[in-house]
Write a structure and sequence with these properties.
CATH superfamily of the largest domain: Cysteine proteinases
Radius of gyration: 25 Å
Shape: globular
Helix content: 25-40%
Number of helices: 6
Distance between the termini: 33 Å
Number of strands: 13
Strand content: 15-25%
Largest sheet: 7 strands, antiparallel
Amino acid sequence: MERAQRTRQAGGAGRRRKRGNQPLRLAAYGLAAAALFTVGMLVGGMLSQTGSAESGEEREADGMEYLPKSAAALDVEFIDQREKYPTGCESVTAVMALRYAGLDITVEEFIDSYLPQAPEPVPDGAGVYHSSHPREAFLGSPYSEDGWGCYAPAIRKAAERALAVRKSGRKVEDLTGKPLEDLCRDYIDKGVPVILWATMWMEQPRYGPSIVEDSTGERFDWITPEHCLLLVGEDGESYYFNDPLEGKAVPYPKAQVEAAYEALGTQALAIL
């Protein structure tokens, strides 16, 4: 899947102040104004430093990043999928959540020891693919650019195996069907990040190939570009994600997130 190219333009307008020949008698007024301005800047600077120190203490105590004042995001370790796991967003996101919950595990351990995997879908020559269902297993390999992906039940199964083998005492909660507002109120606000299915860079969801499940004959459409990422916060305009394809605490507009989340079946998990 090619990454959509986006550019951000930042604009600013400089202010001009007209200059002219002024009578000398105004010079005194200019000097007085300059003195008042200097005093104001000094006082304002001291107040600003005090405010910054207080704000810094709050950020340190909350483990927050330097986000807009209206934003709130959990400080979760970021793992990049791009070099080693080109289609492994689900596994990378799950490991971010597991590590935040205190489990000492790597992405390789999660994939190799716990993730259920099945062969890539095979085309039948008539435009239809045949494979296992992505809710049962990852289709292909997360290490390969030809891998497809998997859905929440497969990641839940893998995470539960990892937690059980390592005697963590934690559990995986299926949050599928919950609105984003509820995920933020009931989990993010309580310090629990959420594994969430959406699209790459919150692009408009599209129907991909039709797939027939081998064991049941069930036919379903693959939604593309399928993606999994970790919800860590929100503000009035955006939801924030640790996005394995992009970075830490990345903001995406709420309307786009909601559309992508709905298209992928409102799938979500949390490690409690």
